[in-house]
Automatic annotation (TrEMBL), chain A:
Listed InterPro entries: ATP-dep_Glu-Cys_Ligase-2, DUF403
Protein name: Putative alpha-E superfamily protein
Occurrences of domain DUF403 (ranges): 1-309
UniProtKB/TrEMBL annotation, chain B:
InterPro entries membership: ATP-dep_Glu-Cys_Ligase-2, CP_ATPgrasp_2, UCP005522
Phylogenetic placement of the source organism: Bacteria, Pseudomonadati, Pseudomonadota, Gammaproteobacteria, Nevskiales
SUPFAM superfamilies registered for this protein in UniProt: Glutathione synthetase ATP-binding domain-like
Feature: compositional bias, Polar residues: 490-507
Top-level taxon: Bacteria
Protein name in UniProt: Putative circularly permuted ATP-grasp superfamily protein
Species per Swiss-Prot/TrEMBL record: Sinimarinibacterium flocculans
Region of interest (Disordered), ranges: 482-518
Length: 311, 518
């Protein structure tokens, strides 16, 4: 496996996962906005915050955070490197260079949704059509993932792709939790009006990560903040929980040429997540703790890149 | 509504599918009947299906002037071109002969230069050749093969003769489209392939792999083979990636490779350096190795020539093979065939005037309005003058160019390229086309593709078929009329007439399995 190709496959995994999570976050938020009463409706800025592209957004659209602006920025904007269209374009560009190591259908799905986004443009962003468009993205991402699992050799290249997928998901999950829950855990005075709607907001956090049904089956109780957080951060069986993703990375590394640096970075971050006392963090320090986890994920990425991609 | 083929006019050109209006050639008879019955509306639908298939399959071609726009769908015409297997057998023999002579020539030029000493090939031509590489003098690649892969362009003139227009010995492209064209045609017209008389084309990647493996400097070991590409912005990148995938070899870019102190070529992998035995390079000589050629090349690999000259790695095609891929050297190929093989050329050259010869030059300058003038070393149809279509000013410009550098120009009569029915905006019309078969040389054997890539000038009346200049392509059929069987006759069995088969009837219908001789 060429180092360059390994790098590409790893990023392919990340881009697909990023596009999917971004699309889902928008779908869920759109639904949440419809469910909340007009006078207390949450704004659209949280979505931009989740993706960590607040500065870029303000430079381009100002501080109004109008729905149309935010959606355009996150779905189509080519100047936003994290937009759905950019992620898919990058994934497609990578596919073009590593096509020979991927099943053929992968290209057809990614290319297809890429063309829909490029050709459909703005008119697909209206509330009524947005859902369909984003559903295309979700389908393509899941199809791609499914095709790779079902028909790509689970060789070293596949393992790199899987590393990227899991690392990106762990990162996305922490981001979504960080931004979504800050106002839920300690409502400010201004958020008081939202209190009666706490339940549906927690549900939307779960939905952003397709976790609602799995959570219900797991907890068999009504949605409670701490339990939701514990589930999304520490559950060992739910594939989008941070712990699960880190464990997957732990299971993948031994299939690659040994890298002490990557193993050490993983052990460290894994321990931070495993050993955390969520109840206490909810009382205070959750935000700082999530920061620590994100930095840990960043270091893990750097260790992987240094070990394998810069040969 | 059925298509009325009597409406199709060949305008005096030789048509590949029709002898005269309404009368198809033998190889095309079934095809023409089929398309006729299909009708115009259905044909238009199939064409849309083909376009969609190409788009979804991602068969693309890049045009340089379009900057970063790397996605142009492969322009494809759904109506195939058909040739009988009898005619093809002769063409194949001619191509093999030609490529063998060319390989002898290249080896001779970088060796003893007997052909120059014997005054069959002028020394002056060699001196001024831009594709002669002094770095290669004295080299003997494995099996004496320099031009492992050759793409020769064939054209058919008014009288139906197939001529060789040029031989591409550097990095000929197009073979992936040949195979993909067939896939699309099978998807769009599956019914046509039921009789089995259209010979398959998909053997090429396997043949190519075997040839590459045979060039390994470490015979006996599982060879490590890589295809070296300039990257995704190259016009033929689709093909590079396609070939690598079909053969299961690594697709590498220059920075993926390095040459060690041991003069061995390695690729950078996640396991550390891995030795490479054979490189199918799809970048030009001058970019191969900044140490030996252009120092500013970022596409190549430092030290690659060193490794090749020491036989630590095979380069396919060999550097310097382009010396025979020169439109002036081309004129000497029939002489080479005679000189090295003692045979007459089976396939004729297009008559050519070499501007380096005084008499030829005068003829060319006096007849610029009738001739096609080509520079010796351009490809892709760039830098050409098509006399009858050029303005006076363009012709004058070329006259100056020729006088300034006669060695660099040759001229040929304007051929009346053959046509074939092509689906255009205005219905089915004749369009001019050529044919590029690919020839693989291993030393002990030569393989020729079944047919090749048919390129068609999509613009009415145009003779320029190059993909880089808006040409399209057609599926090319070699049709085996001798082996052709009538479509299987549907014999109604008792069971089909009478309903459900019973166990005993079923076994009676099948031939009983013969007992093993005891």
């Amino acid at each position: 496996m060429l180092s360059r190709v390994a790098d590409d496959l790893y990023w392919f995994g990340r881009y697909i996962q990023r596009a999917e999570n971004t699309a889902r976050a928008i779908v869920v938020h759109s639904n949440l906005v419809l469910d909340l009463p007009r006078n207390v409706a949450v704004g659209w800025s949280a979505l931009v915050e989740i993706m960590g592209v607040d500065d870029l957004f303000r430079a381009r659209y100002g501080t109004g955070y109008a729905e149309a602006d935010v959606v355009r920025f996150l779905v189509l904007d080519a100047d936003n490197p994290g937009s759905v269209a950019s992620s898919l374009a990058s994934a497609r560009e990578i596919l073009r260079t590593v096509r020979e190591s991927m099943p053929h259908e992968t290209w057809e799905h990614i290319n297809n949704v890429h063309l829909i986004l490029q050709e459909g443009g703005e008119r697909l962003l209206t509330r009524s059509r947005r859902q369909d468009l984003l559903q295309h993205v979700l389908d393509a991402a899941l199809m791609t993932y499914g095709i790779l699992i079902a028909s790509m050799s689970h060789d070293v290249g596949f393992q790199f792709m899987r590393l990227g997928t899991n690392l990106e998901q762990a990162d996305m999950t922490t981001r979504i939790i960080d931004v979504r829950t800050s106002s839920l855990i300690k409502p400010r005075a201004a958020d008081e009006a939202l209190r009666p709607f706490q339940n549906i907001q927690w549900m939307s956090v779960l939905n952003s990560l397709t976790a609602y049904h799995m959570y219900r089956r797991h907890e068999r109780a009504r949605v409670r903040g701490t339990a939701v957080l514990r589930y999304l951060l520490q559950d060992r069986e739910f594939p989008r929980s941070v712990m699960f993703c880190l464990n997957m990375i732990g299971a993948t590394l031994p299939k690659l040429p040994p890298s002490r640096a990557a193993e050490r970075a993983l052990e460290r971050t894994g321990a931070v997540v495993r050993d955390a006392n969520i109840e206490r963090l909810v009382e205070s320090g959750l935000h700082d703790w999530l920061d620590e986890v994100q930095v840990g994920i960043g270091k893990l990425h750097e260790a992987i890149a240094a070990s394998y991609f810069k040969a | 509504m059925a298509i009325d083929w009597h409406q199709y006019r060949c305008n005096g050109y030789h048509d590949e599918l029709f002898e005269k209006p309404g009368q198809p050639r033998a190889a095309a008879r079934r095809l023409v009947d089929y398309l006729g019955n299909l009708g115009a509306a259905e044909l238009a639908e199939r064409r849309l299906a083909a376009e969609l298939a190409i788009k979804i399959m991602g068969v693309t071609f890049t045009v340089y002037s379009e900057g970063r726009n790397v996605d142009r769908s492969w322009p494809f015409d759904v109506i195939p071109r058909a040739i009988t297997s009898r005619e093809w057998a002769r063409t194949e023999a001619g191509l093999k002969q030609r490529v063998q002579a060319l390989n002898h020539f290249i080896q001779d030029i970088y060796g003893e230069q007997k052909i120059v000493r014997d005054k069959v090939f002028p020394a002056s031509l060699l001196k001024e050749s831009v594709n002669f590489r002094p770095q290669c003098v004295g080299m003997k690649p494995r099996h004496g093969v320099w031009a492992h892969i050759c793409g020769s362009d064939l054209v058919r003139d008014l009288d139906g003769t197939l001529y060789v227009l040029e031989d591409n010995l550097r990095v000929p492209s197009g073979v992936s489209y040949m195979v993909e064209n067939r896939l699309v045609t099978k998807r769009v017209f599956p019914e046509l392939f039921e009789t089995g008389s259209i010979l398959p084309v998909d053997d090429y990647p396997a043949q190519l792999y075997d040839m590459l493996a045979a060039m390994s400097p470490r015979p006996g070991n599982q060879p490590s083979i890589a295809l070296l590409t300039p990257g995704i912005y190259n016009s033929a990148y689709f093909e590079h990636s396609w070939l690598a995938r079909q053969m299961g070899i690594e697709l590498v870019e220059g920075p993926d490779l390095f040459v060690g102190d041991d003069d061995i070529v390695y690729m950078r992998t996640v396991y550390g350096p891995k030795r490479v035995d054979v490189i199918y390079r799809r970048i030009d000589d001058l970019f191969l190795d900044p140490e030996a050629f252009r120092p500013d090349s970022v596409l190549g690999v430092k030290g690659l020539m060193r490794a090749w000259l020491k036989n630590k790695v095979a380069l396919v095609n060999a550097p310097g093979a382009g010396v025979a891929d020169d439109k002036v050297v081309y004129a000497f190929v029939p002489a080479m065939i005679k000189y090295y093989l003692g045979e007459d050329a089976i396939l004729p050259n297009v008559p050519s005037w070499l501007c380096m010869r005084k008499k030829d030059r005068e003829h060319v300058l006096a007849n610029l309005d009738k001739l096609v003038v080509k520079p010796a070393n351009e490809s892709g149809g760039y830098g050409m003058l098509i006399g009858p279509r050029a303005s006076k000013k363009e012709r004058e410009k070329f006259a100056d160019l020729i006088r300034a550098n006669p060695r660099n120009y040759m001229a040929q009569p304007t051929l009346s390229l053959s046509t074939a029915p092509t689906l255009t905006e205005d219905g089915i019309e004749p369009r001019h086309l050529d044919l590029r078969p690919f020839i693989l040389s291993r030393g002990d054997s030569v393989y020729v593709t079944t047919g090749g890539l048919t390129r068609v000038a999509m613009t009415k009346g145009s003779l320029v078929v190059n993909s880089s200049q808006g040409g399209g392509a057609k599926d090319t059929w070699i049709v085996d009329l001798d082996g052709e069987t009538e479509p299987p006759v549907q014999v109604q069995t008792q069971a089909q007439k009478g309903g459900r088969q019973t166990q005993s009837q079923g076994s009676a219908a099948r031939p009983a399995r013969r007992r093993r001789p005891g």
